[in-house]
Amino acid sequence: MKTKIYRAKDRGTADYGWLKANYSFSFSNYYNPEKLNFGALRVLNDDTIDGGMGFGTHPHDNMEIITIPLQGSLKHRDSMSNKWIPIETGEVQVMSAGTGVQHSEMNNSPNEKINLFQIWIIPNEQGVEPRYDQKKFEASERKNKLQVLVSPISNEVEGSLTIHQNAKISRIDLDENTDFNYKIESEFQGVYVMVIDGEVQIDTETLTKRDAVGVEQTNNFEIKAIKKTQLLFIEVPMRF
């Protein structure tokens, strides 16, 4: 098993006043040649956005974009519908940019901050028709068991959202002193594990809030929750 530790304190950071950003991989003005991607995972940004603020209309193409609000409410508008759509904590949003789309992402509250993960995954198909979807996922359905949020269009997991890549995004909430075995789909896949909150041990390494580990070249691996813990798994092809 091959692992690489990504400590929260070593992430890139940016402070735009209205936006406090933490970059797991090179993004915007943050560049680290050793942190360009993890397989097909290109971006994992941990953003906190002030009330009434957000990202104005901007373009994307040929990227699978996933947004997971952790606290607060977001609103989305794009060139496919031109309507503001709220995305609440507990929901997940996916957008296939494909041939090209314009969109805006704003804090849906005028006063309260929002904290969210923004994830970009490099697609396995270029030039697809742009598409958008979102879904609510109940926290009770990931208590000590894996909850799949996003899966491949070509091999859809029932109840999940889908994207154009052989990738899977999942969450689990583990009780203290609970063990969990994560099974990787194939030898060509790796999984990026982010500790949303809590403390776990993976392969002798202890990880705490916003620490992460990339795991590859194994069929499965063990996780031990030292404290009550929330985990995010992003499983992607390592060659694409």
Automatic annotation (TrEMBL):
A molecular function (GO) term: metal ion binding
Pirin N-terminal domain mapped to chain residues: 14-121
Pfam families per the UniProt record, alphabetical: Pirin, Pirin_C_2
Cofactor(s) annotated in UniProt: Fe cation
UniProtKB keywords: Iron, Metal-binding
Signal peptide: none
Entry note: cofactor: Binds 1 Fe cation per subunit.
Record Gene3D superfamilies: Jelly Rolls (2.60.120.10)
Quercetin 2,3-dioxygenase C-terminal cupin domain location: 155-236
Positions of Fe cation binding: H58, H60, H103, E105
SUPFAM superfamilies reported in the protein's UniProt record: RmlC-like cupins
Homology family: Belongs to the pirin family.
Record PANTHER family: QUERCETIN 2,3-DIOXYGENASE
Protein name per its UniProtKB record: Pirin N-terminal domain-containing protein
